Amino acid sequence: MTQTFLDVPPELGPIQMMLGEGLLRVEQRFDEQLASELLPVERLCAHVERYRGKMLRPALVMLSGLACGASGISEEHVTIAAVCEMVHMATLVHDDVLDEAENRRRGRTVNHLYGNEAAVILGDYLIAGAYHLCTSIGSVEAARAIGEVSMTLCGGELLQLHYRDDYSLDEATYFAILERKTAALIGVSCRLGAQLAGAAPAVQEALDRFGRRLGVAFQIQDDLLDLLGEERVVGKSVGKDLEKGKLTLPVLLHLGHLDPGERGSFLELLERAGEGDAAAAGELRDRLVSSGAVEAARARARTLVEEAREGLRAAPRGPAREMLDLMARAVVERRY
Amino acid sequence: MTQTFLDVPPELGPIQMMLGEGLLRVEQRFDEQLASELLPVERLCAHVERYRGKMLRPALVMLSGLACGASGISEEHVTIAAVCEMVHMATLVHDDVLDEAENRRRGRTVNHLYGNEAAVILGDYLIAGAYHLCTSIGSVEAARAIGEVSMTLCGGELLQLHYRDDYSLDEATYFAILERKTAALIGVSCRLGAQLAGAAPAVQEALDRFGRRLGVAFQIQDDLLDLLGEERVVGKSVGKDLEKGKLTLPVLLHLGHLDPGERGSFLELLERAGEGDAAAAGELRDRLVSSGAVEAARARARTLVEEAREGLRAAPRGPAREMLDLMARAVVERRY
């Protein structure tokens, strides 16, 4: 749950409790929607639970609603929160398929075949469940937003795939990928939360922007944790971006300051680190830190968070807005 | 296009022409919906065209509308026709991923990795495009039906995957898979076509049933063509069901009449045929023909078509209904 990375001051206790109760309702709605009389479906859906993470998107749907004047967490907010999480889960499940394939390419675990096939269909089931659930609140506008953001998301995935192992990726394209793959859905989560609370279009737009900025900052922090974090703190394997040939912001910023000769030798180092050479990975990290690239990426994330927080001012002052503000700050402070 | 397997009598010429024009509009709507400013997306979508087949679902949406009193093919019918085809295409693209994986298991073409990953995302993009397009007609009911049928479809896929290479599959489960994986979407295509033309609920239901029966018959015929058809006539590789360990209706009907001892030796033959033993495949075919299992499967398909045609009587008599009737008969007569 979102609270796990938040250090919440006492005055926000009541809203935190309200959010916690809301998240439980979201989990329930989520599970009910995926329930099936088919045993193989039931069994697979049970696995989805292990994907359940910070529940960032559901929290944002509900807090955005509360920040825009909703007196409590409505059924519609719970539904749309579950929808946003389901869309997110679908991408995680399909990302796993892509990553498992990658693992196979590096010659690791061999017969993930049955697993991959089931995962493709499970992801499809999640996305179908999301759309179906979405129509239950009777808002064509919400359904349209979810359909649209899903297309955007896939566009981001395809763009990312296109640039995998391609060192010509530039900063603009890096951000274009993040905007689509991560930020858009987080933005829509905030926007729909506001919309369902009857917020004015300008406020919905401001919250959408808040979410998008937050989403980009969140992803940059993810990149940094993957590069520098320790496995036991982050809670998942680190250094995966290097292995996957994914260029992250610190690497891009560093590359931007090299002359052609330095660039060649740095790319070679990157290649070696990607092939699992631990010494090369260590040297790479050292260079990114000493050149200031890591710090520059951190600064970028902090600026985005500040921009996000400014957008929040469109919503009326109150504990829900405070909570959103706290979450925004936590994004760049989190260690996991 | 659907017409390619139809021998249309002269009096249906006008409706056939109307349908042909409608299908062109569907193709256009389809392409417009998937258009993207991202080059990698554009490039992949261009590939989708090669999946374009008989356009059965779009034809059924439009003909069901016309059969229920629509004076022409409305924009809404074109949209929903494109939506149904997009959902279908998404499943084809993801099926291909599953099949390519299978090919790898048999040790064929090796590095389809990039292709597989792109195909997973492309399928997601198609399904997202379908949902997004669906909301453009402003009908929550239609969006809900499409979301629901997509879940059903995935359930069928998972059930099928669960029983792959599992010879305990029985006839009831075989039909449960077909109903979900193939028939449900064809039924919804007919139902939505009728609904958008303002048909009464009972007529919508009758057309849904027509579509479902037709869908099951269509799939049985597909099974038979895969088992017995000649590659140059069918236009795609045959014998794939055996290779994939997919039990088809003739095999199931045959198995149902064997005593335990015969069953063992027949399963062995099936296994050998599945491993690419051409002599075993030939013997298998001969046994299925001589035991009457093939004929029994054909009879099953014919009965389903007759049931489908009876359901059609709920719609008023006219050339569109005639055309649907003709299509139903063609399903069990087609050789490709």
Your description of this structure?
- The structure is a homodimer of 336-residue chains.
- With 336 residues, the first copy, chain A, is an all-alpha fold.
- Chain A has one domain (2-223, 319-333): Farnesyl Diphosphate Synthase.
- Chain A has helices spanning 13-34, 39-48, 56-67, 75-105, 113-134, 140-162, 171-196, 201-228, 231-234, 240-243, 249-255, 260-274, 278-290, 293-312, 319-333.
- The longest helix of chain A has 31 residues, at 75-105.
- Chain A is globular, with a radius of gyration of 20 Å.
- The two termini of chain A are 13 Å apart.
- Chains A and B meet through helix 2, helix 4, helix 5 and helix 6 of A and helix 2, helix 4, helix 5 and helix 6 of B.
Index terms:
homodimer, 336 residues, mainly alpha, Farnesyl Diphosphate Synthase, 15 helices, 75% helix, 0% strand
Q: TL;DR?
A:
The structure is a homodimer of 336-residue chains. Chain A has 336 residues and is mainly α.
CATH H-tier superfamily of chain A: Farnesyl Diphosphate Synthase
Query: What radius of gyration of chain A results from the CA coordinates?
Result: 20 Å
Biggest interface and its residues per chain? A-B, 53 and 53 residues
| Largest beta-sheet characterization of chain A | none
The first-level CATH class of chain A is given as Mainly Alpha
* Quaternary structure of the protein: homodimer
